[in-house]
Give the backbone structure.
Amino acid sequence: SSVPPSLPPSWLLFAVRAEGSRRAKMTSSLILAFGDQKHQVSAAGSGTDAVRFFRNLEDVEVKAQEKLGVQPGTYDLYDRYGKIRHQKDLMRALETSVAGEVLIEIREHAHFTRIRGVEAEEKVLANRIDKLERSLQDSEDRTAAKIEEATADLTSNIGNVNKKITNEVIPSIETLNRDLVRQKQQTHAVQEKLAKINLTEIADMCGKADSLREDLRAAMDRMNKLDEEWTKEKSHIKETTSNVGTEMAALRRYMEGKIEVCIQTDADMREDQQKLDERLEFLVDEVKLVEQKHKRLEKKCEGALEESEELRTTLGRLREDNAYVKKETGQVRTRVHCIEGTSTERWQDFANNEDNMQFFRHWHRLAKGSGVQLSTDFVVATGRGFLAATGMVLTNDEGLVVGDGPCRRFGTPGQWSSYFEVQLEEVCAAPESAGGLYVGVSLQSAQEIAAHPKHEFDGWLIGGHAKALICRAGNGGGVTNVTDGDLPATWAQAAKDPATKESAAKAVQMLRNALPTRAKGDCRELRSMWASHKLHSGDKIGILFRFNREGGARMKITVNGELTATHDFAEAPPADAVGYLTPVVRLAGTGKSARLLPGLQPPTRIIAG
């Protein structure tokens, strides 16, 4: 239900909210409201039973006092039809409720409303009086504090003035009194001295003063003459001094020039001395190198002499064997024919086609890593990659150079050895852990390596900081990716002759079984016995690589003709599965530049074993 808009500001509302029809049995609620305050009282039953718990209107007043704080006798009850004076008026309000709602107005008497306003104003005035009293008390406290502070300051200033009078003013007055007494004594002494002066003596003194004046005048004349002479002499001395200064300046410039010449001469002499020292050091180094070369030559001579002795012994044995062969000529010829027939059937591709083989002569101009620069004749390769200079060669192709053809082979069928040599042209400073260059061989040719997008290959290398590398090419570059109709480069020479192509195809199948296809290239490090960072510029490195019959391989390294290191690779195909090999070098660490030396043969003493 809505509240009439004409209600006064202070009123009490009593409402009964019923659910259902007005006269049916239902649950009703009573709401007491005074201003913004409201209170609800619920009861069960019809309109008559809804207020059964109210015995009379006094109970309503008690409930209003308890819940809303309204005092009895200060208000009247009203509904929308008029004032409620007794129980019947209350029943009227219940019976005439709209939608189960009854509105009862309790209007406060006007004089009580005024009293309530006066009480509120009284509370406000009491609060203001309390604030004023507290402010007055605080002001009195501050005034007392300031008076005490000013009293303390005044007392301190009076004490300071007394001290200053005692310590400064009184002593000054006493000093002035003493000075005044002393002045009177001095004045009295002067008066006594003036009384003793003789006027005759003063007249004599005046006469003497006149004579002294004449003497002084004569002396002044002599001084003027001396001054004129001094002025003339001074100009002469000044001119002489100026000439002497000019001569001294010229002499100073001359001496400074001489000193600069001496300093320049000393610097030139020091530079010449330094150059002489450097030349002497170079000569010492050259002498050491000559001594080393002499020792190497001496060792080579000793080896040649030993080989000469061995040749003599071999020649004697050959003579004996020749005599034996002459006796067994028929049997020997038969055996030789049998062996030649078997060798021709098995190794015809090597024996007949090697004369037409194009072996390496220089570095391949395309099969090289990033940062590698070749000379105009493609014989010298120089590495300029940063990663290779630090010894990192596993995940990149920096410093990679490949020969433009296969290596020459030496030995017998089933025991072929591939050999090539390189010369270290230039070394550079690098940490010891970076090592030096890597040398080795590859199953792929230079063309196959250049065609691979990552320049990967199947090969074996040794060097660095006492390391060995086993390299495998991924899809697109391995020997196993060659179609059945073509042969990989290691057996390409055999494909030229139709008679040997079938045997080469069988060898390729054996190679594919030994080196299966890989989806991704791989390069693994192993420990070795050769540290290439100890090499010097000009050293010649020989690489001899041989596959074993049952699998595995052995690599021998010679430095300047001396066997330096030997390394066995367990992971390698058998000798019958491999044809020609291609020389490979990785410029890394201290190894900056290398020269490829074609057409050389290995020392006979390193082929055996």
